[in-house]
C-alpha cells in the first residue's frame, strides 16, 4: 500500500512539474485553448456572468496562470444605487458576491478552501498533456486524470470531468475520489 501511495505522489509531482514548466518555457498548442473553451461551453456559466436568480450549479473560470477552475456556484444580486441590479454567478460561499466583483475587475480569484473544485491545466513532456486535478479544503491537489492531447483527449476528459463532478455532488463519506472512480469503472 505504501508503495502505491508513493507512486501516486511521484506521478502528481511529475504532473505538477510538467504543468509548471509548460507555463514558463513552452508554448502550448492551440488545441489546449480549444479544449478549455470546449469545457467552458459545456459548463455553460462563467464566474461573474449574468444568470437567472435561481441559478445553483457548476461554473467555470480561468485563473491568471491559465488554469481552468470548475466549481459550484450560485446567483448573487448585484445591487446599485436604485436598489436594482443583475443576478450574477458567484462562488457558492457566503462571500460569493466578492468573487464576482474580483472576477469582473480582472483579479485572480482563488478557489476558497471550503469548496471542492476541479482544475484543468496542461503540461509538456515529449508531447502535450491535459491534467485534471481535484482540490478540497487545504489539502494538496490530487491528480485524477492525465492524457496526451494527441489521443483525442476531449472525450476522455469530458468523461473524467463528469465522474469527478458526480463525486463532488454525492461525496460518499466511505470512498475517496480515486476509489469512487475505480468503483464506477468496475460497474460499467
Describe the structure.
Helix content is 40%, strand content 24%. By secondary structure, it is an alpha+beta fold. It is built from 5 helices and 6 strands; from the N terminus they run H-H-E-E-E-H-E-E-E-H-H. The longest helix has 23 residues, at 2-24. Helix 4 (153-170) packs across helix 5 (177-187). The model has no long low-confidence stretch (mean pLDDT 81). The relative contact order is 0.14. The radius of gyration is 17 Å and the shape is globular. It has one domain (2-187). The protein has helices at residues 2-24, 30-43, 96-104, 153-170, 177-187; strands at 56-62, 68-77, 87-91, 117-124, 128-135, 142-148. Strands 1, 2, 3, 4, 5 and 6 form a 6-stranded antiparallel β-sheet that branches.
Low-confidence stretches: none
Question: How many independent structural domains?
Answer: 1
Rg result: 17 Å
Sheet of most strands = 6 strands, antiparallel
> How many β strands by DSSP?
6
- Can you count the helices? 5
Q: Hey, roughly how much beta strand do the residues contain? A: 15-25%
Binned, the helix content reads 25-40%
Distance between the termini: 25 Å
Overall SS class:
alpha+beta
Mean of all residue-level pLDDT scores: 81
Note the overall shape.
Answer: globular
Spell out the helices and strands N to C: HHEEEHEEEHH
Amino acid at each position: 500500500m505504501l508503495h502505491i501511495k508513493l507512486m501516486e505522489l511521484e506521478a502528481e509531482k511529475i504532473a505538477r512539474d510538467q504543468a509548471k514548466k509548460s507555463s514558463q518555457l513552452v508554448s502550448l498548442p492551440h488545441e489546449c485553448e480549444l479544449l478549455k473553451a470546449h469545457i467552458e461551453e459545456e459548463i455553460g456559466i462563467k464566474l461573474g456572468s449574468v444568470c437567472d436568480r435561481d441559478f445553483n450549479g457548476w461554473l467555470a473560470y480561468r485563473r491568471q496562470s491559465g488554469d481552468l477552475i470548475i466549481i459550484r456556484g450560485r446567483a448573487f444580486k448585484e445591487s446599485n444605487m436604485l436598489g436594482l441590479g443583475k443576478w450574477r454567478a458567484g462562488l457558492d460561499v457566503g462571500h460569493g458576491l466578492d468573487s464576482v466583483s474580483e472576477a469582473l475587475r480582472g483579479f485572480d480569484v482563488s478557489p476558497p478552501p471550503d469548496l471542492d473544485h476541479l482544475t484543468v491545466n496542461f503540461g509538456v513532456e515529449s508531447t502535450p498533456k491535459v491534467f485534471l486535478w481535484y482540490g478540497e479544503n487545504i489539502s494538496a491537489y490530487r491528480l485524477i486524470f492525465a492524457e496526451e492531447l494527441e489521443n483525442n483527449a476531449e472525450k476522455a476528459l469530458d468523461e473524467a470531468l463528469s465522474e469527478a463532478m458526480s463525486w463532488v455532488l454525492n461525496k460518499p463519506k466511505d470512498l475517496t475520489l480515486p476509489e469512487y472512480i475505480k468503483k464506477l469503472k468496475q460497474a460499467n
